[in-house]
Write a structure and sequence with these properties.
- The chain is an alpha/beta fold.
- 41% of the residues lie in helices and 24% in strands.
- The strands form 3 sheets. It has a 6-stranded mixed β-sheet, with helices on both faces. It has a 3-stranded antiparallel β-sheet with strand order 9-11-10, covered by helices on one side. A two-stranded antiparallel sheet has the order 4-5.
- Strand 7 and strand 8 form a beta hairpin.
- The longest helix is centred in the middle third of the chain and has 19 residues.
Length: 254
């Protein structure tokens, strides 16, 4: 299936532990960083508890507004991990055993962990028959890639180590094959001892002079402000962005 250039990506993280603050959502922050580096823009980040209706409604809502929906969490072997059966219902499929995923589970328990293999562990190898299976080289729960009406949905484990492996080794390379992407370029200048409002006044004319497609962001922190120039334009050796960045440094230094 061919796709238009993506305009928006949504990241959905699933788990009650995220909503009560028991676990910090580092997954979506890491995913946003690596996707941005690859040239993709993130439109929304959504955290959802382990509730069927809430997850279903989040998928419907994000599908309306985004081209790519990336999901982490809810793929474990316990009763509160409902993402897989929900996705099976959402995309109109039925659960089947993926033999490669099954062998992976067996190998992990018998060769690496040396622990008894339970029936609920083997159920980790069940996947909807309407997805492309993403084998998990770092754990037992496979990932799932769905395509529907020109949209891509990818479900990955919530364990950061496992999710990162899938993103690096499969998801981002596959997305780059399907979409023509212009890398997002950034230049960041760190200032100290100058307030955000003062900088905004100082840079009024500079901001007005920026070419279309180049944006200046103010990122304040205690005692400092980062100034970030960004563009998604294809620039000749980034010379345009570098020109503005050098000009920015001179203005702030003055």
């Amino acid at each position: 299936m061919s796709f238009k250039s993506p305009k928006t990506i949504s990241i959905i993280t699933i788990g009650d532990e995220l909503l009560i603050g028991q676990t910090i959502d580092t997954n979506s922050a890491w995913m946003a960083q690596v996707l941005n580096k690859a040239g993709f823009s993130i439109n929304r980040r959504v955290a959802i508890g382990d509730d069927w209706d809430n997850i279903w409604n989040a998928l419907k809502e994000e599908e309306k507004k985004n081209d790519i929906i990336l999901i982490t969490g809810g793929l474990g072997p316990t009763s509160d991990d409902i993402t897989k059966p929900l996705l099976c219902s959402y995309f109109g499929g039925k659960l089947v055993v993926d033999e490669l995923a099954k062998q992976n589970v067996v190998d992990i328990f018998t060769k690496k962990l040396n622990r008894p293999l339970l029936e609920r562990n083997l159920k980790q190898a069940e996947v909807p028959d309407v997805c492309t299976v993403i084998q998990n080289l770092r754990g037992t729960a496979p990932g799932m890639w769905f395509e529907k009406d020109g949209k891509i949905f990818v479900s990955m484990p919530g364990v950061p180590f496992e999710m990162k492996g899938m993103m690096d080794e499969y998801v981002i390379p596959e997305l780059l094959k399907k979409f023509e992407i212009t890398p997002i370029e950034h230049r960041t200048l760190l200032t100290a001892g100058i307030g955000e409002s003062f900088l905004a006044e100082l840079l009024t004319n500079f901001e007005a002079s920026l070419s279309s497609g180049i944006k200046l962001a103010y990122l304040p922190n205690y005692g400092m402000v980062r100034l970030r120039l960004s563009t998604t334009q294809a620039l000749d050796n980034n010379s345009v962005l570098d020109k503005y960045f050098n000009e920015l440094k001179e203005i702030v230094k003055a």
